[in-house]
């Protein structure tokens, strides 16, 4: 078997950039925490979806399409869902179905591949109950007043992922104080449901799961007790991922849940934290289909490029100016490719793109590599082809911007240049009509020097017509 080029990834567990070595190179396994489906996804939620989509593409490239399993869940049981359904006077099921459908449309518009498996929490209640029973049997969890809690002091090395000082973790956990807790840091695995709340029968009465156990159950079911990569936004490190690790490790008795933990940095909007109260909360849908941000609707490619121009671990400041820049860049790329009469692209990455991504998924460097290709594409057909193919492989809808550039090629020219060309073309046509071929040839040469190629033909009534295009 040929050796795959070395991928290096920053592992939140070790705080180091490490060589990536899958447990089984013929089956690379990745889990990413997906959306809680109660409302439109915002542009911050889009970040992990896009980032891990690029990683998925890279893994498939390195290990083979059929050797990678990407699981991204849908959280369809959550108190926020219950509250929103009640507020809107619709059923929980109607709310989660509608929200999941919108989410799928949004992320498809952003150029993201579907994960291999998209499990729903409500379809994994049995696995959750099994894990909770294992934890109780091993002394890592206890039932109290219809609740089941994970006993944090029962795990000697709890907290390895977040490495938070104990007092901070206690303060964080205190949000949820309750008499039935043995320790402030213990967290909920199962809780009782009132009659109007969604609930499932369990050994502890009718109830519903806590959030963290959902991901432990879904990753176990679809990827096994241990797997390669687990991802999500940086805010999930504590408590969500820390608690997933505690549950799965204590239930199955392994040293790790996933070998590599990857976290994307946060996105803020025009220099401020995104929040409903500040009024700068923007959904993917609004960016795609309204003029709420920057005065116009943006294509999925513009949003994708804006996201990927920053390395995934860095914070991003989401600005209308950056979107404008990304739009101009894509327009230029389309024009460069169309100029070489390349009509469509194949999803095939240039080596420089792969090299950039091998270094901790450095999409900023991959963007620089695309810019290099674009520079060379001014004169070089194969660079233009590599640009289009690499962009398509990265998830951009290159064919659409090539088509757009073809449509507007002449319209996009500098008006003065265009007027000059039109004048010379008309003068040449007049000279030809008067059989002054010396003059018409001289004018053609002048146009050639300007990069203009002429095509002589006949109009609808048999009259001489000359069309032109720019060949640089
Ligand atoms: P949530 O719906 O809050 O559970 O978030 C879903 C995913 O989006 C998680 O991976 C979060 O870490 C991520 N996320 C939420 N807000 C942001 C943000 N402003 N920037 C980057 N990622 C975010
Ligand atoms: Zn999760």
What would you say about this model in short?
With 472 residues, the protein is α/β, with parallel strands linked by helices. It folds into three domains: 24-264, 3-Layer(aba) Sandwich (Rossmann fold); 268-406, no CATH class; 415-470, no CATH class.
What does this structure look like?
The longest helix is centred in the N-terminal third of the chain and has 21 residues. This protein has 472 residues and is an alpha/beta fold. The model has no long low-confidence stretch (mean pLDDT 93). It is 45% helix and 15% strand. A hairpin with a 4-residue loop joins β1 and β2. Strands 4-3-9-10 form a four-stranded parallel beta sheet, sandwiched between helices. It contains 16 helices and 14 strands. It has three domains: 241 residues, Rossmann fold, CATH 3.40.50.620; 139 residues, no CATH class; 56 residues, no CATH class. The site of adenosine monophosphate (AMP) has 15 residues, from α1 and β9. Adenosine monophosphate (AMP) binds next to α1 and β9.
On the 0 to 100 scale, the average pLDDT is 93
Radius of gyration: 28 Å
Number of domains: 3
CATH topology of the largest domain: Rossmann fold
Unique bound compounds: adenosine monophosphate, zinc ion
Helicity level: 40-55%
Number of DSSP E strands: 14
The CATH level-2 architecture of the largest domain is identified as 3-Layer(aba) Sandwich
- Output the CATH class name of the largest domain: Alpha Beta
Through-space gap between termini: 45 Å
